[in-house]
Amino acid sequence: MLRIGLLGRGFMATVHALRYAEMEDVEVVGVASPSEPREFATDYTENAAAYDDALALYDAEDLDAIDVCTPTHTHRDLVVPAAERGIDVLCEKPLERTMGDASEMVEAAEDAGVTLVPGHTLRFFPEYATVRDRVREGDVGDPGNARTLRQSPYEERPAWFDDDEKSGGALLDLAIHDVDFLRWTLGPVERVFARRKRWDGNEYALATLRFESGAVGHVDARWPNRSDLPFKTAFEIAGPEGLLEFDSEDVAPIEVRSTTESEPSRDPIDEPLEKDPYRLELEAFVASVRGGEPPITADEGLASLAVALAAVESAERGEPVAPAEVGA
């Protein structure tokens, strides 16, 4: 039986707790949160002990791994002590608020010989994974241009999201989903230019990424403070041989346009999904704890964080910023 410690009690911790409950030979044995951990453990886990402090959880329970679903700026102080105790870690994106803190986490995991998996769940969504495969297989030729959109509306959310020193705003917390997808698909990013606007609890951000390949990506991230707007994602990737598009509001999951004579498949997903992306992500993490390869390496998490932080810095400075410029 794999023994998991779950940190946090918000939306993502709830999602993960429910998925672990569906898995065989995996048990959440402890939950830690500074607020109401006992209520969370009662509602979402079967036999988990509740702790107000994560370090107390580490020392009281015989853990194989922890799952960190807490605010971004808390990750270092939770991950480093776990690594020092020889505990494997799944850490929700982004790894941390700064490169310095994130690098300490990665170094601690390497020194201890434990697995640290960044929680970039988007890689497990079939529309994104399928398009990445098609791009890598040459379906559009050499990609020249990519666009992504992510709109996540809210009216009430924890105060730390509005504290730029803790969350990094939409360019870090929200846009890093698509930054990681584009970097995973198109390769290393050379420089970033970004703009963002905030008003009345809303935030709109746009980042332009220049990839080392010469491709250009446009990342549109929106935090509207409105309940009447939908959660929405979209992307397109274009090259000389065709265009791949996705829009979450379109009834067809993927649209393919090609210069080839054969009729392309409109829906590349052959069978209905038996497991959602969160379940697939957690199963991949569990497999890595049991000795398999990590589905996403800590270094990949660092690379995507550097691009998102370059966007944050670019918006502040009003000029392009290379990911390599982003310091501690």
UniProtKB/TrEMBL annotation:
Bias class Basic and acidic residues marks the residues at 258-276
Residue ranges constituting the Gfo/Idh/MocA-like oxidoreductase N-terminal domain according to the UniProt record: 2-120
For the region Disordered, what residue ranges are annotated?
255-276
Q: What InterPro entries does the database record attribute to this sequence?
A: Gfo/Idh/MocA-like_OxRdtase_N, Gfo/Idh/MocA_Oxidoreductases, GFO_IDH_MocA-like_dom, NAD(P)-bd_dom_sf
Segments forming domain GFO/IDH/MocA-like oxidoreductase: 128-244
Q: What is this protein called?
A: Gfo/Idh/MocA family protein
Q: Which organism is it from?
A: Saliphagus infecundisoli
